[in-house]
Design goal:
The complex is a heterodimer of chains A (about 290) and B (about 375).
Chain A (H helix, E strand, L loop, with lengths): L17 H32 L3 H4 L14 H8 L3 H32 L5 H10 L5 H15 L5 H26 L2 H9 L4 H30 L2 H5 L7 H9 L4 H31 L6
Chain B lengths: L3 E10 L2 E11 L4 E5 L6 H9 L6 E6 L2 E2 L10 E4 L11 H11 L4 H14 L15 H13 L5 E5 L7 H18 L2 E6 L2 H7 L2 E6 L2 E6 L1 H6 L4 H6 L6 E8 L8 E4 L2 E4 L2 H6 L7 E6 L4 E4 L7 E10 L3 E8 L2 E8 L9 E6 L5 E4 L9
Parallel strand pairs in B: 3-8, 3-9, 6-7, 7-8
Antiparallel strand pairs in B: 1-2, 1-4, 4-5, 9-10, 11-12, 11-14, 12-13, 14-20, 15-19, 16-17, 16-19, 17-18
The chains are: A mainly alpha (about 290), B alpha+beta (about 375).
Bound molecules: adenosine-5'-diphosphate and magnesium ion.
Chain lengths: ~290, ~375
């Protein structure tokens, strides 16, 4: 009477039907295609930046350089202003994240929890700030920054980066807080928490993966942004602004090294918060 | 422990009046069930007691404290949410201990009290798990444990069984009743399920459109509904209602009820009580199990025709036609009936309930 169960085989060792096999092959092909689309440029640029200079201009280029050379990288890193502007970039990115989260988290919380007059208008209005190209705003911004005394400061750059990141960050944080049930907070309140305590103890930990994603998004925007950073600074340049300023006069190997160097922090940063991203998008619980 | 007092409580959401001038006293240690159809304002009433909603009018008392302006955490309540609202990022132990930690209870005592409550609810094996690793029934127990571990004066429960399978629901229902006896907190229990209400409540408060229509013990609510709505909402099948008229007698003081094309003489006490309503159109209510079905129309029995026979296992549910009116009747399974058969009906006039045809309100208490 009992229905026949499929034999207990460990996953993976079972013979695939032709159809399943075909699907799996297609899946892997897609994965490889997407991954190489992202990874190939990074790989090439990485290889080239560690290629000895005499081989750099040779043709055909060997896929793997005959000798691992840090000359080019060292030249780039030691060239005037690179190290300093890298630190500047990191500072600006961190400041941008701080400013963005301080504004976007409460805004997203309010949008997700409270019904108030003008909520929908606010939700849309916040995107309007992205309507004006930065080039259009450059001159008024420079004037404003001079008046406020934040021209050519890192804080100044962080502010404009935060302004660029905010519309999307608010959208992201809103959806994060919508995802954390209001009843959890209310339960905490019946158990003795004030609204603020309930937020800190319940909502914030549950929202952390999402907030990490918002932070990453903000980091990338700030790290890559070049126009505003170049216009609003003269001495205290961020890395992209610095590289941009020197690019025309540089040798190709200098450009390659700069390009690779600029990807490193983003890679490290994504690596660090990867766990939260997987938790949020993959649904697997975080290891503890 | 403490009594709960609502005095003229109002709660309005925009144009919707969720709670309309509710006045209600829940006695110390009582198990009160708030019963009503979905959207009638039960949850909102409960949240007003909890302090999760600010009332728009009236006052809320717990014991002799006026808690109207107090936040939920200061009201000495425990609440079980419909969704359980178990914290997903905390182990079961930390979930239950949460309130105690907020009150800065010493660690050793926290451990002892969590252990006690966990044993009381049979979840001591689960203390190390995360909520994602629990079944619905287990999560519900964690929510209850978390609420009662603080030994609150007042325990509030919002449809705690509605997300459970029918089988588990029956079991947990009995456990909740036992638990209430054990801890003695004044309990307000919200449900839209009339069977739950009848089986659990010391008293039942029936709500409709934000108002409380009747507060009584389960037997009274069932046998003497305050109006047509309560009679129709409680009981399965709901109470039968027929339009009728009370007519004055010719000689003796007795009244006669005209309904479904028949004349039913009323006994003396009922006649006296209903005297002032003579000539008025009424609605007559009678429960399905209070009608006796005879295999043949004979003597003074009302003739009726069987329309549908539904075996329910323990009983038969008959749908009958009496003078153009439809009646639901519950009979024993050994009665021999089939559709289209003529039968006779007999009932005790004392079981009849008389309502005003216009307002629907019961004429007698
Ligand atoms: N936060 C709210 N905002 C607007 N309307 C609400 C809110 N909460 C409840 N209501 C409305 O109040 C009425 C009563 O709701 P509720 O108390 O949840 O009913 P019940 O628990 O009896 O199903 C419903 O009409 C509902 O739509
Ligand atoms: Mg409800």
């Amino acid at each position: 009477m009992t229905p026949t169960m499929p034999p207990d085989v460990p996953p993976g060792s079972r013979r695939l039907t032709p159809r399943e096999a075909r699907n799996r092959v297609l899946l892997y092909m897609a994965v490889v295609a997407i991954a190489s689309w992202v990874l190939l440029p990074i790989f090439l640029i990485a290889v080239l930046s560690f290629t000895p200079r005499e081989e750099f201009f040779g043709w055909p280029k060997p896929l793997i350089p005959s000798r691992f050379s840090i000359e080019t990288m060292a030249f780039f890193v030691n060239s005037y202003g690179v190290l300093e502007s890298t630190l500047n970039s990191i500072w600006v990115a961190l400041l941008t994240i701080a400013i963005t989260l301080v504004i976007a988290a409460p805004a997203g919380y309010a949008l997700s929890r409270f019904v108030f007059r003008g909520r929908e208008a606010f939700r849309l209005g916040i995107l309007i700030t992205r309507m004006f190209p930065t080039a259009l705003l450059a001159v008024p911004l420079i004037v404003l920054y001079y008046r406020l005394g934040i021209y050519d400061t890192l804080v100044g750059v962080a502010f404009i980066h935060a302004a660029m990141a905010l519309p999307f960050s608010v959208l992201i944080t809103t959806s994060i807080f919508v995802g954390v049930s209001k009843e959890l907070e209310e339960a905490a309140m019946t158990l003795g928490c004030s609204r603020l305590e309930a937020f800190v103890r319940i909502t914030l930990p549950l929202a952390l993966p999402g907030l990490a994603a918002a932070a990453m998004f903000t980091f990338v925007i700030s790290w890559n942004e070049v126009f505003a950073a170049a216009v609003l600074t003269t001495q205290n340049r961020t890395l992209p602004a610095q590289v941009l300023a020197n690019l025309r006069a540089s040798q190709p190997y200098f450009k390659v090294a700069g390009g690779f160097f600029m990807t490193i922090p983003a890679l490290i940063f994504i690596f660090l918060i990867r766990r939260y991203l997987i938790q949020m998008w993959g649904g697997a619980p975080a290891e503890r | 422990m403490a009594e709960i007092r609502l005095e003229n409580v109002w709660k309005v959401f925009g144009k919707v009046v969720a709670v309309r001038d509710v006045t209600l006293t829940i006695e110390d240690g009582e198990f009160l069930v708030l019963l009503g159809p979905s959207g009638c304002g039960k949850t909102t009433t409960l949240r007003c007691i909890a302090g999760l909603e600010r009332v728009d009018g009236g006052r809320v008392f717990i014991g002799d404290r006026d808690v109207t302006e107090l936040p939920p955490g200061k009201r000495d309540i425990g609440m079980v949410f419909q969704s359980y609202a178990v914290f997903p990022h905390m182990r079961v132990f930390d979930n239950i201990a949460f309130g105690l930690k907020m009150k800065r209870v010493p660690r050793a005592e926290i451990r002892r009290r969590v252990q006690n409550v966990a044993e009381m609810l049979g979840i001591e094996e689960l203390l190390k798990r995360y909520p994602a690793q629990l079944s619905g029934g287990q999560r519900q127990r964690v929510a209850v444990a978390r609420a009662i571990v603080l030994e609150p004066q007042v325990l509030l429960m919002d449809e705690p069984l509605s997300n459970l399978d029918a089988l588990i629901r029956l079991q947990v229902r009995a456990e909740l009743k036992r638990l209430h006896k054990q801890i003695g907190s004044t309990t307000v229990y919200v449900t839209h399920d009339q069977v739950e209400a009848l089986s659990l409540g010391d008293r039942i408060a029936v709500m409709k459109d934000g108002e409380i229509v009747q507060v009584d013990d389960p037997t009274t609510v069932y046998e003497h509904p305050a109006d047509v709505f309560v009679g129709g909402f409680i009981g399965n099948p709901p109470m039968n209602f027929l339009p009728g008229e009370l007519v004055a007698p010719k000689k003796d003081g007795f009244l006669v009820l005209k309904a479904a094309g028949h004349e039913i003489p009323l006994p003396e006490t009922l006649s006296r009580a209903l005297k002032e309503h003579v000539g008025r159109p009424v609605t007559v209510g009678i429960r399905a199990e209070h009608i006796e079905v005879l295999p043949k129309p004979e003597g003074d029995a009302l003739p009726a025709q069987v329309l549908v026979v539904e075996p329910l296992g323990s009983h038969l549910l008959l749908t009958l036609d009496v003078g153009g009116q439809t009646l639901k009747v519950m009979v024993d399974t050994d009665l021999q009936v089939e559709p289209n058969r003529e039968v006779g009906l007999r009932f005790d006039p004392a079981k009849l309930r008389f309502m005003d045809r216009e307002t629907g309100k019961a004429l007698l208490p």
